[in-house]
């Protein structure tokens, strides 16, 4: 569910982009005298999800928007054009600006000490992590998190450089099956020549950085730093802050094992801990 203004009529199609998208889907579907189940079949989802999307209760996936444009005559790509705006309502308001910047970034450098970042999580891993906060819109949060990963797979992908503590691979999220699948996904990224994955081996000494952070770079303009925190993350763009973040990231990369060793490290931990 999106965060609505308390003074807004929940039934008003203009209440939010999510409501507008859903009302447009319902309008076009009824114009064709198409049943929800039939649209669900086209979009590879069930009747219930179609109903929730039409009611503005669920964030649609890109595949759903593409199916609508394919099925509804004369849509001319309208639903895919609406989709990025709709997706914003799957994120907390404070995180939306970061997502906008992430989509424009040419490279993303991330350090995470305890968990895999959302940009590389499998759906099951993401669901288990997000469930710990007991959100009322868990499905929307999972959908939105997974959809962010498209930037790594587009025609000109965003380049990812990821530095992780070894503990990230050993901290059990959900169960062994979820972790095996997650580490297999991470290994694919580690093998991809577009991206870099480095792991800081556990030598019993703390390296000094405890907070997850990332640095976004763009074709034009300066870098932007994002720092994860509780209860919300924040962005930094001041020159001194960006310089400090870049220096810290360079040191973390120097402490980590070389990228070429990452696949073997991942395989070894997966075998030792989750086989």
**Which bin fits the share of residues in helices?**
40-55%
By CATH, the architecture of the largest domain is named 2-Layer Sandwich
β content, as a range? 5-15%
Order of helices and strands: HHHHHHEHHEHHEEEEHH
Describe the structure in your own words.
- The chain has 275 residues and is an alpha/beta fold.
- It has two domains: 17-89, Orthogonal Bundle (434 Repressor (Amino-terminal Domain)); 91-274, Endonuclease, Chain A (2-Layer Sandwich), CATH 3.30.870.
- The chain is 48% helix and 11% strand.
- It is built from twelve helices and six strands.
- Strands 3-2-1-4-5-6 form a six-stranded mixed sheet, with helices on both faces.
- A hairpin with a 6-residue loop joins strand 5 and strand 6 (234-236).
- Helix 1 runs antiparallel to helix 5 (78-87), helix 2 crosses helix 3 (47-54) and helix 10 (176-191) runs antiparallel to helix 12 (262-274).
- The protein is globular and about 65 Å long.
- The two termini are 38 Å apart.
- Residues 1-6 have low confidence and may be disordered.
Summarize the structure.
Helix content is 48%, strand content 11%. The protein has 275 residues and is α/β, with parallel strands linked by helices.
Supply database-style keywords.
disordered N terminus; alpha/beta; 2 domains; Endonuclease, Chain A; 275 residues; 434 Repressor (Amino-terminal Domain); six-stranded mixed β-sheet; 6 strands; 12 helices
């Amino acid at each position: 569910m999106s965060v609505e203004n308390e003074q807004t009529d929940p039934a008003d199609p203009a209440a939010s982009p999510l409501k507008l998208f859903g009302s447009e889907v319902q309008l076009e579907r009824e114009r064709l005298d198409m049943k929800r189940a039939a649209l669900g079949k086209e979009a590879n989802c069930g009747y219930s999800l179609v109903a929730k999307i039409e009611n503005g209760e669920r964030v649609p996936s890109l595949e759903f928007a593409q199916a609508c444009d394919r099925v509804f005559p004369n849509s001319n790509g309208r639903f895919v054009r609406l989709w990025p705006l709709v997706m914003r309502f799957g994120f907390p308001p404070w995180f939306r600006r970061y997502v906008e910047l992430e989509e424009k970034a040419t490279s993303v450098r991330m350090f995470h000490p305890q968990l895999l970042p959302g940009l590389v999580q499998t759906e099951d891993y993401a669901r288990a992590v997000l469930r710990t906060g007991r959100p009322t819109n868990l499905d929307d949060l999972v959908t939105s998190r997974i959809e962010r990963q498209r930037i790594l797979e587009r025609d000109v992908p965003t380049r990812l450089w990821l530095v992780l503590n070894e503990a990230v691979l050993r901290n059990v999220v959900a169960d062994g099956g979820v972790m095996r699948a997650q580490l297999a996904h991470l290994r694919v990224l580690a093998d991809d020549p577009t991206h870099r994955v480095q792991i800081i081996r556990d030598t019993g000494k703390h390296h000094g950085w405890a907070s997850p952070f990332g640095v976004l770079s763009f074709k034009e303009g300066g870098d932007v730093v994002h720092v994860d925190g509780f209860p919300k993350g924040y962005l930094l763009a001041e020159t001194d802050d960006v310089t400090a973040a870049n220096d810290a990231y360079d040191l973390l990369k120097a402490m980590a094992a070389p990228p070429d060793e990452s696949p073997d490290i991942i395989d070894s931990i997966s075998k030792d801990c989750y086989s």
